[in-house]
Amino acid sequence: MTAPSESPWPVRGGTAASLDLATDCLVGRARELDEVHGRLSDPGGPRLLLVRGERGVGRTALVRAVAERLRTEGTSVLAVGCVPGDGDRPLVLALRLVMALEEHRSATGRQQPAKAVAAALRAAEQRDGTVLAALLRAALERSAPVVVALDDLQHADAGSLAVLHGTDFARVPPGVRLLASAAQTGGRTAGGSVDQLAGAEWARTVVLSRPGPEDTTALVARRLQATPDTSLARRVRELTRGLPGAVDALLTEWTRQGAVRVADGHAFVGVRTPTPVLPDGDRYLRALEALGEPGRAVAGALSILWPLGRPAAELIARSTGLSADAVDDGIRHLVDAEVVEELPGPDGDTARGWTFAIPLTAHAVRERLGPLERSRLSATAVEALWADQDAAGTRYSGSPPGVALLDETEAVAYLADRIADAGALVDRDRAVTDLTAAAKWRYPDSGGRGLLRWCRAAGNLTERPADRVSTLQRYAKAAYQVGDFRTARTIAESMLRNLADVLSPLALQDTANVFTAATGNDEDWGALTRLATAQWWDELGLPPLVTVTGRALALSQLERWQEALDLLARTEHVWATDVRAGVKPSYFRAVAEMALGRPELFRASLALTEASYLGADHVHALATTMFDELLSARDLHTAEALLTAQGITADALAPRSLFLWRHLQGRWDEALEPARWMLANNQTRTPVADGCVIPARTAAVLLARGRPTSARRLVDSVRHSGEGPREYSLDAVAAEVRRTLGDLTGAERILRRGLEAADTGGHVVGLDELWASLAEIHAETGRTGEAVTCLARLERISGLTGGGRSRLRYLLASARVLRQDSPGAAREHLREAVELARSRSQPFETATTLVAAATADAGPAALLNEAYELFGGIGAALPRFHTRAAMRAAGIAVPGRRQATTENEELLGTLIAEGLTNRRIAGVLRLSEDAVANRLSRLFARTGLRSRTEVVTAVLTGGARSRAIVSPRG
Fold it and tell me: 78, 140, 247, 353: least CB-packed within 10 angstroms?
């Protein structure tokens, strides 16, 4: 298999160099590897060491790794393998062993093997195990010292196993060892078996268990050359149960399909990516194919019915026409072949049911069923579950009774999936009711697994036009919720065009909102511009309420705030007559007013006084949108108070909300996970006044962690060309990257461009960052007059918005500008800034303020210690480095000398990996070029790395020699 290539920003998929599966399968096997090697190296150790475990657990990989280690130590190792079909060829393994040993003797110059080989061939042809046993014993005695590696012994013929079991190893020189691998099942029984061989006095067995969650995640990381995100790692574990062979099969198919995406060294599987179907040649399907009938028929039915537990056997017989005995035989053969596992009941004797050893195999078997067969079996499951519900006197209320082997959430999904597959073969009305309930149960589902399928199935099963409208509405909203904006647009537009005479004005308004919002999130700026005109809506003949709502939202998404306000003012008589009808237009007006520097309406809207008139889903959507808006404005306390007031918990938040929240809290590692997910799935647009806030703040985190090149690439990758909203937050972070690299002219150019674009629409919110940065650049370059002008604009914004962030930016920028001419005023501003920053409880913001105050003598030098710890807690390596320098300049001891040295080297390695020259690094670290060269020399000397290229490789791959310079925060 191949792994996706990784370029930190922008996000890409693709392929890279193949990896060594044998090496990958050894992840987490260090203990077993050492145990097997140690036993074989011990003169008093066992003569046969048998490595056992289920299919795909990594037996072959372990045997090969041990053999390779022995060869490097000078031990002669012969490899003899078994393949499917060997069991039907009497004495073939024994013959191979004799021939391999004799050829080994010939290669070492001890003897020509012709006579012994010819005798072995005759004995095999005559099926004379006694003669072949004698020849094998003689070959073993004459070949010492040697280790013979026997792979896949479960395929060996019974006669050869009997020959091995009967060999008197007491007469064989101690330098002869056998290293074998075999499946966990017993193998041949006619005259000899693997179990009998394992029970020999001179044999020992090492059993490989399935890797645990951490080892499975490490295996995925090695295969993809990127750290898997939490959802990807969890999904791999669910589908493969950690078996390396299954993990490889799954990742191979996903990579072949281009489903794996890599962002910033982290791997993701795209939204709604289906589970791949294993190819016919896969090892797990070959094992099933080898069973023949009735095993294959039973497996197909069991892939649908197994969650029902023991009753599944009776249902399989009823649905396939097989006898109960034939079904039992089929299940027993599936268990013996390790395709299915028996789940013991409470008494330990009677099975409570069966499950596939690997869920990925169950999926492959189920998907290979014909559509009619899958529908028929699913209908059997649905009818059985409905019968259980009726017997229990309950309709849909959480977990359906009868799903014996799944937890509540899985049981709900199972019933919904079976209804979707059964289609018209079950009662339509009841099916739609259960599918709708399942969709509500799953909401919110950011991954979309199941949700869209259930909504689509409900729509297909609904016959009455009025009912079909409601299912289509749910389908469009579900598609929007999970990020399938194209589907949401298609359905919503179709409803607007074709069902306007069926939907009520409020339902049409809701549909128009979904359609317009999905168009904006799909970043189709041309279409969104058309939606901002009256002509588009008038052509459909929609009610004025719908037209006004759709146009106002389109204008807002395009950040044409004043036009939106003018429209809403002219049409207030249309939308302000009903509380429910006025909720969305009122909110659009409040956001537009806030964007133009008038936040009073937005603040008043936070009370959600209209909540009692709205449904729970509507209230949740409105509250979380307000939450995002507050976090975009860096108003953490008000945002958290809103969540508390509405009883919304973190698990009910979308990835964008989690990112914005964790970012301000200083929990950057937690924030970056949803940020990477959104970038990998192209879902970074935020329905707030600043639609670019997520990539902008992600880039700011990268910059603070010493990754200016990655930050710049990210900003460039999400910028629009031509149409679209303004990108002032991207301008702010892009300018900060230039400032960090010492390019003040480039930074000023970017800031002025952003400010000019914002001024054309009267935009105010968010521009405090740009004016503050521009004032500081003017101060640095000695243009005090221009800096004061910027301060005046900044102070005006602060007064208009009344926001704590704007006030803080004004205080910090003014202190920088006034430092020379009015040092007293500058210190007063910094003292106020420290008090304000502490009250806002945002670690990065607070630390930055503390450093500014301490270095300008506006507070005790001890503030540097506090800032140093805050920067360390969030992983802001670059400002922490600068704070360390400031502490030394102030005569303050830096805690943890060894840790400080390690952090310096980590940061230096990161900057080199970012492609910066020594001159650029010197500018970023505020050192001389000679100082950077000296630090680099010391890094080479201590780590053994010899070039910048090796440093880059070490940082990107985390090589063993470079662990000291690889930051765990990535």
Answer: 78
Q: What residues have CB less than 8 Å from 825, skipping those under 6 apart? A: 814, 818
Map tokens 């707030």 to a residue.
Answer: 688
DSSP 344: E
Overall pTM > 0.85? no
Chain centre distance of CA 212? 18
151 DSSP β-pair partners: 81
Confidence label for 390 from pLDDT (cuts 50, 70 and 90): confident
Strand order in the sheet with 203-207: 77-81, 146-151, 176-183, 48-53, 203-207
CB 87 within 8 A of CB 158: yes
Do strands 351-356 and 48-53 pair parallel, antiparallel, or not at all (unpaired)?
unpaired
Sort strands 176-183 and 146-151 into parallel, antiparallel or unpaired: parallel
Neighbours of 43 (CB within 10 A): 6
- Spatial strand order in the sheet of 227-228: 227-228, 266-269, 260-263
Tokens of 298: 């039973």
* Cβ atoms within 10 Å, residue 404: 17
Residue 51's DSSP bridge partners are 181, 206
For residues 855 and 883, the answer to whether their CB atoms sit within 8 Å is: no
- Strand, coil or helix: 467: helix
| Residue 156 structure tokens | 């060996």
Strand partners, 228: 267
Separation in Å, CA 389 to CA 110, 314, 375, 392, 396:
78, 19, 21, 5, 8
Question: Is there a contact between 724 and 527 (Cβ–Cβ < 8 Å)?
Answer: no
d(CA 360, CA 356): 9
- Reading the block at residue 860, the tokens are 């005790």
User: What are the pLDDT digits (tens) for 325-359?
Assistant: 999 999 999 998 889 999 988 776 677 899 999 99
Q: What's the CA dihedral at 524, 527, 530, 534 to 10 degrees?
A: -100
* SS3 label, residue 321: coil
At 162, the amino acid letter reads A
Distance CA 770, CA 763 (A): 12
Q: Answer whether 549's CB lies under 8 Å from 575's CB.
A: yes
The sign of the torsion formed by the CA atoms of 457, 458, 464, 467 equals negative
Which has the closest alpha carbon to 471: 482, 455, 450, 483?
455
Give yes or no for a contact between 525 and 720, defined as CB atoms under 8 angstroms apart: yes
What's the Cα-to-Cα distance from 97 to each of 93, 142, 162, 264, rounded to whole Å?
6, 13, 14, 51
